[in-house]
Structure formats: structure tokens, C-alpha cells
Design a protein that fits this description.
18 strands; single chain; alpha+beta; four-stranded mixed β-sheet; globular; 12% strand; seven-stranded antiparallel β-sheet
């Protein structure tokens, strides 16, 4: 149903103009929009004669209304905040935004691109009329039903239960390509909507609910957007509202007394404007509407301070009870809203030894503060139990702490099992990378980004028995406007702390930051987790460990740095785009490279400790062959954990090289020098005699003769085959090449049969072809790790045969057989169907384990002799 067209100030209603564009009644031809290098202008505006029979009644005066619509889009065009450089927008949208940059005019015109986005329910009475005392027309009900269905589908049912909220709610349907391809799309449309309100001189709050769709009709205007651009936010449901800011603006107009008058005056003014229209309302209706907004504003902010008795009284007035004094009601409502309470941080001490015990960690808190346990905190449309909330001064669980400066223990998702990845290599750098990526990345497609704050600062602190990621959110004025978050690194929970403070101009943010960092350092987890690789490293720094454990440790420590490299690169680019005044593609690339370098350089201390552990193994009696295997593993770590410009294409590689971003820091070069020294002096420690080890490790180095002593080796393998005892024999005594090759064939046949059985278990005649190949790919992933372990056993056996004196001819045959066996470690799933292969590898990627390259390097070294 078409909207009312008359705006409240005599201009065309901005929402009516939006309706005309979205419904193809008005449109721009090629050449109607001109670009002068700074802004767009209009050469013409077309009326769709083909749709004349479907035109609404008000559209009879086309010339006047077209001029009004042109006035509106030119008004929006002047908003400099709506300009986005063309280079920042996905190429798939370039045709839709016409020539030049995206500006207010071309943003508004996207509604005419087969409704790439549109405002549902176009009636200005539905949008504003109930606030101004007007009555909706009968035909508005059909529009309202559509909006209700959309809000229910989007999970926003709570708005339907609040008439005041619904009266200011506007649903914006948008094609997902816009949100992915235009930086800050939601913010831009919100700013455009503010301009539309200003065009009609409307000063009222709004709630914009953005709901995603994929509009097939828009394919004629929009191209594909393969990946989100920096600054994109592609969540399926997103909410923008100014209710809190609008309410604070009303309250700031004067003292409590003048605020009451201001509220009434606002209602009187709005009612007077509406009375000038044929559907105008009374002053009393306008005041009731303003009081409803006050109630709604408290509800949106969390716990409502307005009693149910006052809300019921307002409801009776709305039902027609004229005995209720609205001005007195307004006074009593305002009196029930408390002021915020800021903490005094001029002198913060921790002498009393105060400790707050949370669900999974405890923390020290300052003298003169109170930890309120089991506190129920209200948030948007919900109440959440907090293990504790810490405030300055005295407080109880019955007090309302929502406007006080406070420290909140946040417990999300409870406890969870420690997964296989964290069991193997869940150490500090992995948690830092994941938290940093989560803080700055804006490419989420699952709706989480709608709740994600903007992070403007971060650091890491050493706590009692863990480390913590500390971040600061973007500052907003007023209560709860300054927030810091502290995330302890833990493998089995996500519990954290929120420091929520009032922000006022000129306040000392550094004092708050100092408090945050001091308290973060006092955090002590109840059950700190140490992954297997760190346990092995700690043990290897003081005693002998099996050589396979050492090599596995080096591989596992490397894994997070490689696996999370792309995540950090992407997040660093988003961080740059968020902070940049003027986006520059080159600087964005360099920012991503610096992010990778930052992650890689965190590996240097681990690399140094592994060289210290190598020296301990030299002293503990490793054979020459075992030491060479360890050095090979460390050399692979050195090569792949610290990237070079080779990971970029030619042009970007030159940029990164010129900036020296991947140049080895002095600390890394020192460790690499130690590694090179050890390789050049076989069987010797990584430092010359008399050199000081990092840390406190002190060992007495054994002689080379002692290192040559062999120990009988056994294989501990969970997936056993008939090849295992034969491999153990090849590890400990000399065997013929035919015996070795036969062992390889036994292992290969057993593993291939088992893998096929696993694939069969993942398939069913009831499944689709796509589901079947995805299941088969999962089986391939599982067996890749098993086959890779066997590959390592064969390389171990090959090295043993070299040490045991096998002839060069036999070694050559054995090496060729090992090479063939290594090819069984798949790097991609394939069933012979190109489409199904793509589906399987996208949904369940088959990749070679990280240790594959280490094993392969050892084989290459033997084969090249």
C-alpha cells in the first residue's frame, strides 16, 4: 500500500519519495546523474509511464512531486558523511552506484535498483502518526502485518509487544551484497534516514531493523560480491537506534523542571504540527506519546526505573482517563530515574587484600570497593545473573548498579570440553591470535557482528597463572560510555571481566586503564591448562625426551602461527580501515602484512626455548641421527613460522619488502645463528662453549661418543596394522630392501582399505550426493593424520637403515618406496566429479598435516646424499 505523501513541513514526505523509487514509479536513466569529481548532480528524473495504471492516487500531480523528490535527493547528496570512495566498494557494485564515489544521491538511488534495499511499510502515519496523536488509515493494517511477520522472522518479537517501540520502528530489507560490498552500510543508511527526517523537520527517535535477503530481481543491477570489503558488516539482522541519545538530548535541555516542560513542549509542538494536517492530534495525545517514549527509553537501556504503578497510570490516561494530571505524572516519572554515579580513582590502593571469587577465576579488587555476589543485571530485553559485580563504596544485590561505574564478571556459554586442538597446542599465542582476530575482524556472516563492539586499543598482560587480552571499546558519552574488557586465556571456558564506567569530556581515561591493568594482573584461574606441546617443551628443558616427542612438539608449536596467519592478516586490514581517515589500498595491504609479522614475532621466544631444549638433548645422549632429525624439525620451524614476502603476489611482495616488514628482528637472527652453529658442528650444542643459555637451564654436555649410543626403539601407534612390528624391526636392525618394500605395501594396503571403510560409513543412499562427498572428505581428513604418522615411521626406519650401514643401492630403493608412500597423504579430496570435488573441499577441506613438510624435508635430505 502506498504511503501518505505530505510531509509534516509542507515538503514531500521523504518516506513517500523512497516508496516511489523502490516501486519504480521514479527512476534515473543513464545520463540523468552526473559526477563532477566531488558530488553528483541531476540532469533529469523519469516517471514510469508503463506503471501509470498502478500509480497511487497522490501521484496524479507528478510534476510537483517529482520536483519534491529531486529536492530530497539533492538535500541528502550534500551530506559529506555519506561519501565512500569508489576504491573501497566491491567492484560488483560499481555499476549500481553509477560513476564516481558513493554519495547520498546514489545511496538513496539503490532503492531503485530492483529494491536492493527498501523501507517496508511506507506510511508516515505508521512511522510517526501515533506519536503525534494521528490515527492510522485502514489500509495501513496490511503494511503493519508485513512488518510484523518480518520482525517475527528476524527474532525481534519484543518490539511487537511495545506499541511505543513499534511506532518508531522501521524495517529495512537489504540485499546481502550491499552489506558485504559497502563499508559501514548500516551506518550509511541510518545517516541517510536521519537526513530524511531532517528534510521533514522531524525530531523523533527511531529504531531501524535491518533484515537481510538475497533479491534475485536485483541481479540485473548488482554483481557478485565474493568477499566482504574492509569495514563491511554482513550480519543478517542488525539494529540501529537513537532512542537513548534522543532521550538524553531531551533531558539535557535544562534542569528537571525545565525538562518536564521541554517534554510537554515537545509534545505540544509535535501535536500542533500534526493538527495542521487533516489527521492531526491533540496536545494531550502528544504528551502521552512523549511519556511512552520515556518508558521505552528506560526499557531499551536495560532495567526500567519507572514503577509499574506509573506505567499503569499512563496506560489509563492513554485509554481516556482525563482525570490524570499528565504534567504531574511526568514529574513523578522523571524523579524515578536515577543519576549516574562515577568512581573516584584519584587514589586506588590494594592494601586490604580484597579477593572476589568468580565462577572460574578470582581477582583482587581495590580498598573501599564492594564485590556484590550473584547480582542480577538487566540488559536489553533480558536479565542476566552475574557471579559478581564490583563497585566503589557499599552496595547490595538489591541495589540498582546499572548506572554506577562497575566491574562485571561475565560468564558466557559455561564450561566446555577441551578439544583436541587445545590439548595439543592451546597455548598463549593461539589465544592471543584468536582474541585479536575476533576483536578487529568485521567479515562475520553469522550475525555475531551485530553484537560486536568496536575495539580501539588492546594489550596483553601476564596474570598469576595465565595471560590476559585487554581491550578498550569505542568511547560514548555518558553512563556506561567507557568500557574495557579483560579475557583470561583458558581452554575450557570464556569467562571474562567488563569494566564499565561513565565517560565525560576531559576525564582521565588513563586512570581507568591503570586500574584495569592492575586488576587483570591479579587474575588466577582455578584450573589452568597446559597443552601437550608446552609440557614436552618444559620437560625437554631439563631432561631427555623421546626424539619423536620433540619433533611432534616443534610441529605443534608451529601450527597456530600458520593456521591463524590469514585471520590476523584480514583482521589487521579491517583494523586499518576502521581507523583510517582516508582509505588507501596500499596501506591496507601493508597493515595486513604487519599483522602477520606481529604474530610471527611472538614465536621467537618459543623458538629460542626449543634451541635450549635441543642443547639439553645433546647432553642427554641423543644419537647423531636423532640430533639431525631434531635440527631438521627446527630448521623447518625457522623457515615456515617466520614468513617471507613469497606469501604475497609480485606487486604486494615488492611493497612489503621495501617496508622491511618481514626483516628478521635481532632476537630472531640470534636464534637462527645458534641453529646454524649446531648444524655446522654435528653433535654439538647450539652455542659455543661458555655461552649462556636463555632462562635458567644449566646442563653438563655429554661427549659426542656418548651421543652415539643407540637405544632400542618402539612405535606407539593407536591405529595398528601388521606393518608396525616390521617397522620396529627396521628401526633397530638392518633389513633388506625387499623386506622394507614389502612392509610399505602391507601398511599401504591396510590403510587404504580402512580409509575406504570409513568413507562407506559416511555415505548413505538416503543422502544427497553433496552430503555423501562431504562425509567422504571428512574420512579423508581423519586418515590423512594416520597415514602421515606412518609416513614418519618409514622415514625414521630409512634413517635407521642409513645409520645401520645399509648399502647405497638398498637405501636408494627404500627411499623411492618411502616417497611413493608419502604420496598417499592427500592434499585434496577427489571423486572424479569436478562439481562434487569442489563442494567437498569447500565444506570439509582436505589438507596435509603440518608435520608432513617436516617429514618430507627429512626424506629429501636422505635422498640427496
Amino acid at each position: 500500500m502506498e504511503p501518505e505523501y505530505r510531509g509534516l513541513n509542507g515538503r514531500i514526505d521523504a518516506l513517500a519519495a523512497a516508496w516511489l523509487f523502490a516501486n519504480d514509479q521514479l527512476f534515473f536513466m543513464d545520463g540523468d546523474i552526473a559526477w563532477d569529481g566531488t558530488h553528483h548532480s541531476i540532469n533529469g528524473l523519469q516517471s514510469n509511464i508503463a506503471l501509470q495504471s498502478e500509480a497511487p492516487d497522490f501521484w496524479s500531480d507528478r510534476l510537483t512531486l517529482a520536483k519534491g523528490a529531486a529536492d530530497l535527493v539533492l538535500y541528502i547528496e550534500q551530506d559529506e558523511d555519506l561519501i565512500v570512495p569508489r576504491s573501497q566498494i566491491s567492484p560488483g557494485l560499481h555499476e549500481a552506484i553509477r560513476d564516481g564515489d558513493l554519495t547520498g544521491l546514489t545511496l538513496f538511488n539503490l532503492q531503485a535498483c530492483a529494491r536492493a534495499f527498501q523501507f517496508l511499510d511506507g506510511s508516515n502515519f505508521t512511522a510517526y502518526g501515533s506519536l503525534l496523536g494521528g490515527k492510522p488509515q485502514a489500509e495501513d493494517e496490511s503494511n503493519r502485518e508485513i512488518v510484523q511477520k518480518v520482525l517475527q522472522t528476524a527474532g525481534m518479537d519484543h518490539l511487537l509487544e511495545n506499541p511505543a517501540a513499534m511506532s518508531m520502528t522501521r524495517v529495512v530489507m537489504f540485499d546481502t551484497r550491499l552489506a558485504k560490498g559497502i563499508p559501514n552500510f548500516f551506518g550509511l543508511v541510518t545517516k541517510m534516514y536521519q537526513d530524511m527526517l531532517a528534510f521533514n523537520e522531524i525530531d523523533l527517535p527511531y529504531i531501524l531493523v535491518f533484515v537481510a535477503t538475497r533479491n534475485v530481481d536485483a541481479d540485473q543491477c548488482l554483481g557478485e560480491v565474493d568477499k566482504p570489503v574492509p569495514g563491511a558488516g554482513s550480519e543478517p539482522v542488525h539494529v540501529e537506534t537513537n532512542v537513548q541519545e534522543w532521550q538524553e538530548a531531551q533531558e539535557s535541555k535544562g534542569s528537571e523542571e525545565s525538562s518536564e516542560v521541554s517534554m510537554a513542549d515537545s509534545g505540544e509542538q509535535a501535536a500542533g504540527e500534526a493538527a495542521d494536517e487533516e489527521d492531526g492530534g491533540s496536545e494531550r495525545d502528544a504528551i502521552i506519546a512523549m511519556l511512552n517514549l520515556l518508558v521505552l527509553g528506560q526499557g531499551l537501556n536495560g532495567k526500567s526505573y519507572i514503577s509499574q504503578d506509573l506505567i499503569d497510570e499512563l496506560a489509563r490516561a492513554e485509554d481516556g482517563d482525563e482525570s490524570i494530571d499528565l504534567m504531574d505524572l511526568a514529574k513523578r516519572m522523571n524523579a524515578s530515574v536515577p543519576n549516574s554515579e562515577s568512581a573516584d580513582l584519584s587514589s586506588v590502593t590494594f592494601d586490604d587484600g580484597n579477593i572476589a571469587n568468580g565462577r572460574r577465576f578470582k581477582i583482587a579488587y581495590p580498598d573501599g570497593w564492594t564485590a556484590v555476589e550473584d547480582y542480577e543485571e538487566s540488559a536489553l530485553f533480558m536479565t542476566q545473573a552475574r557471579p559478581f559485580v564490583i563497585v566503589q563504596g557499599e552496595a547490595t544485590a538489591e541495589d540498582d548498579l546499572s548506572l554506577r561505574d562497575r566491574i562485571i564478571y561475565s560468564s558466557l556459554d559455561g564450561d566446555h570440553e577441551i578439544d583436541e586442538v587445545d590439548e595439543k597446542y592451546g597455548f598463549d599465542d593461539k589465544y592471543w591470535a584468536l582474541r585479536w582476530w575476533s576483536s578487529y575482524d568485521r567479515s562475520d556472516d553469522e550475525g555475531i557482528a551485530s553484537m560486536k563492539p568496536t575495539v580501539v586499543w588492546d594489550t596483553e598482560v601476564e596474570a598469576v597463572n595465565t595471560k590476559c587480552f585487554v581491550s578498550q571499546q569505542e568511547i560514548n558519552d555518558g553512563p556506561n560510555g567507557l568500557e574495557f574488557d579483560v579475557y583470561p586465556y583458558a581452554a575450557d571456558h570464556l569467562d571474562s571481566l567488563r569494566f564499565v564506567f561513565t565517560y565525560e569530556d576531559g576525564m582521565d581515561v588513563e586512570a581507568v586503564k591503570s586500574l584495569v591493568l592492575k586488576m587483570a594482573k591479579s587474575i588466577e584461574l582455578d584450573k589452568p591448562h597446559e597443552p601437550k606441546c608446552m609440557k614436552t617443551l618444559k620437560k625437554a628443558l631439563s631432561e631427555k625426551v623421546p626424539v619423536d616427542d620433540f619433533i611432534e612438539m616443534a610441529s605443534d608449536i608451529f601450527n597456530p602461527y600458520a593456521a591463524l596467519r590469514q585471520n590476523i592478516f584480514t583482521a589487521a586490514q579491517y583494523k586499518y580501515a576502521q581507523a583510517a581517515d582516508q582509505f588507501d589500498e596500499t596501506e591496507c595491504t601493508l597493515a595486513g602484512a604487519r599483522g602477520i609479522a606481529c604474530l610471527a614475532n611472538r614465536a621467537i621466544p618459543k623458538f629460542e626455548k626449543m634451541l635450549d631444549a635441543y642443547d639439553v638433548q645433546v647432553a642427554s645422549g641423543y644419537t647423531i641421527g636423532e640430533l639431525e632429525r631434531v635440527l631438521d624439525a627446527l630448521e623447518v620451524f625457522s623457515r615456515v613460522a617466520f614468513p617471507t614476502t613469497e606469501i604475497f603476489d609480485c606487486n604486494d611482495a615488492k611493497l612489503v619488502e621495501d617496508e622491511g616488514i618481514f626483516d628478521a628482528p635481532e632476537e630472531l637472527q640470534i636464534v637462527r645463528d645458534r641453529l646454524n652453529y649446531a648444524k655446522e658442528h654435528g653433535g654439538m650444542p647450539s652455542k659455543p662453549s661458555g655461552a649462556k643459555l636463555s632462562g635458567s637451564t644449566v646442563v653438563a654436555f655429554a661427549s659426542v661418543a656418548q651421543a652415539k649410543t643407540r637405544e632400542r626403539k618402539v612405535i606407539s601407534e593407536s591405529f595398528t596394522t601388521d606393518a608396525i612390528p616390521r617397522l620396529e624391526k627396521a628401526l633397530n636392525e638392518r633389513v633388506s630392501s625387499s623386506y622394507f618394500i614389502e612392509t610399505s605395501e602391507i601398511a599401504a594396503n591396510a590403510l587404504m582399505v580402512a580409509r575406504q571403510e570409513a568413507c562407506d560409513e559416511e555415505t548413505s543412499s538416503w543422502n544427497s550426493d553433496e552430503d555423501n562427498v562431504i562425509g567422504m572428505a571428512r574420512a579423508f581428513c581423519k586418515f590423512n593424520s594416520i597415514i602421515c604418522r606412518y609416513y614418519g615411521y618409514f622415514v625414521d626406519a630409512l634413517e635407521a637403515q642409513v645409520e645401520l650401514g645399509a648399502t647405497p643401492g638398498d637405501i636408494k630403493k627404500m627411499a623411492a618406496e618411502v616417497n611413493e608412500f608419502g604420496e598417499l597423504v592427500a592434499d585434496r579430496f577427489s571423486c572424479g566429479n569436478e562439481y562434487l570435488d569442489e563442494v567437498a573441499n569447500e565444506q570439509s577441506p582436505v589438507v596435509r598435516p603440518a608435520e608432513y613438510q617436516i617429514i618430507r624435508s627429512r626424506w629429501q635430505k636422505i635422498n640427496s646424499r
